[in-house]
From TrEMBL:
Upper taxonomic lineage: Bacteria, Bacillati, Actinomycetota, Actinomycetes, Kitasatosporales
Record InterPro entries: AhpD-like
Protein name: Carboxymuconolactone decarboxylase family protein
Matches recorded under PANTHER family: 4-CARBOXYMUCONOLACTONE DECARBOXYLASE FAMILY PROTEIN (AFU_ORTHOLOGUE AFUA_6G11590)
Domain of life: Bacteria
Amino acid sequence: MPSIKPSELTAEQRSLDAHVRQLMAGLPAPFTSTDPDGALIGPFPVMLRFPGLARPLLEWFTAGTGASVLPARVREVAILTTGSRYAAAYELYSHSRVALDVGLPEDIIEGLVAGQRPAGMTAEETVAHDVAARLHSGAPLPGALYRAGVRAFGDSGMAELVFLVAQYAAISAILNAYDVPLPPDGD
């Protein structure tokens, strides 16, 4: 689905475009999110075409990131684990860069992108990986793993982790449904 030039957006799309740009401005974004015309890329052209469906999804994301209790590295481990399960190319591209920016070592990022459980992660990162991987297996989360998550992150942090995995599963599904391509600088 091609990007939409800012000059070609409808009023409803312009409002959503402005909202997305405001959200992106507050996040570390060491990845390409616009094309040479300044149009949003990645999942955003899809969202702009369906603003009634996209707004609630973006509000859900905002609720989960506003008062995050999870460390940035833990969040990126969960996001990359989710993206790898879906083989969502743009998700893996963008969040590999974010993960590097927040201090995850390159070998761990490469392992997560490859769908592995890399050695060298912290105990918290390992719990985040295991929770995300198990949630994508189609089976219930084992009690022992849930309790490990609560010990590592508290009740609120564990809930945030579960919702984060669900959010990025949704974004990964959208990226795959519309076969969203990588930008020219994508690896």
